[in-house]
Amino acid sequence: MLTIRCLNIKEMVFPIELTAREGWNPGLYDGYSYFEADPTGFFLAELDGGMAGCISAVRYGQTMGYVGGHIVLPPYRGRGIGEALWQHALDHLQNRVIGTDGLPAMEDFYKRYGFIPEHTIVRYQGNLFDHACLGIDVYSAAEVDIQTLAEYDNPMFGCSRMDFLKAWISQPGIESACYIDKGQIKGYGVIRACRKGHRVGPLFADTPAIARRILCHLACKAGEDLLYLDIPRSNPAAVQLAESLGMEIGFSRLRLYNGPGLELPLQRIYGFTTLEIG
Question: Which of 102, 123, 185, 189 could form a disulfide with 214 if both were Cys (CB 3.0 to 4.6 A apart)?
Answer without folding.
Answer: 189
